[in-house]
Design brief:
This is HTH cro/C1-type domain-containing protein. It comes from Desulfosarcina widdelii. The chain is mostly helical. It has one domain: lambda repressor-like DNA-binding domains (434 Repressor (Amino-terminal Domain)), CATH 1.10.260.40. Helix content is about 50%, strand content about 0%. It has four helices and no strands. Helix 2 crosses helix 3. The longest helix has 11 residues.
């Protein structure tokens, strides 16, 4: 309970790693990596690798940020 006597069920995403933040926000927004993969013509595994940070494809990153309405990768380095 919070100070007002009400149950507080707010998830603090700021403390989570980027990949977890993206997955949680995608679930809340009724989005998923399979949908993004179909939209972009790539595999789900490739989307997962970008989300996890293994790959740094700017086109995929921009699509994810646009779909979720938040910036996750402020740097502009690109690796395809």
């Amino acid at each position: 309970m919070d100070t007002n006597g009400q149950d507080s069920c707010v998830l603090q995403l700021d403390n989570l790693p980027t990949s977890y933040r993206i997955r949680v926000m995608a679930m809340v927004a009724d989005q998923n990596m399979a949908l993004w993969a179909r939209e972009l013509g790539v595999s789900r595994q490739y989307i997962y690798q970008v989300v996890k940070g293994t790959r740094k494809n700017q086109r995929i990153r921009s699509h994810i940020e646009k779909r979720l309405g938040e910036t996750f990768w402020p740097e502009k380095e690109v690796q395809q």
